[in-house]
Amino acid sequence: MEQPTTHQRIINTAGKLFYTNGYASTGINEIISKCGIAKATLYSHFKSKEDICIAYLNNRHDTFLDTLRGYVDRRKMGKNQMLAIFDYLSDLFREGDFYGCWALRTLGELSPKQKRIFSTIQKQKKELLLFLGEVVDNNIVNGSKAEIEKISGGLYLLYDSAITESHLFQNAWPIYMAKSLAPKLFGNAEIKS
């Protein structure tokens, strides 16, 4: 297996520390030590801890969306595709080392001055919401824009709640509860099969 570049190793190492210990609790010196690199090497790749965090968030988000897309595509059309996000979340939870949503964990630690990280997280959450809108649109027959937005927005809120609460309780019941509530969002919509 190919070794990651120094740049990617910094992102991976810092990302693991941010996710497990928290953004605020992780210092530059700890990242340097865990990477086994010199301070000058780190700063030749990233100008600041904030830049490392943004790279981590982007890396994590891109991987998440790519994997989720594949997860949805492998499901049968209809309800199964619209609920696939909860199955994916359940698998993430079972993998262990689950600390909830990496973006929301970081968001909870931000000061008002950290607008770049805030904007990055906001953009990524919008991308997830748009992706869910595409999934719903592809699986509802002649759905109106309002109906698609209502269903995809509801799925998004149930997902974000489930990922946070499953971490809080260290249990998968919030994921199963969210998945069982989600079909109520579909109402009388005609679902493809």
From TrEMBL:
Signal peptide span: none
Record InterPro entries: Homeodomain-like_sf (IPR009057), HTH-type_Tx_Regulator (IPR050624), HTH_TetR (IPR001647)
Domain of life, per lineage: Bacteria
SUPFAM superfamilies: Homeodomain-like
Domain HTH tetR-type as annotated: residue spans: 4-64
Record bears the keyword Kinase: no
Keyword Hydrolase in annotation: no
Molecular functions per Gene Ontology: DNA binding
UniProt keyword list: DNA-binding
DNA-binding annotation, residue ranges on this chain: 27-46
Name of this chain's protein: TetR/AcrR family transcriptional regulator
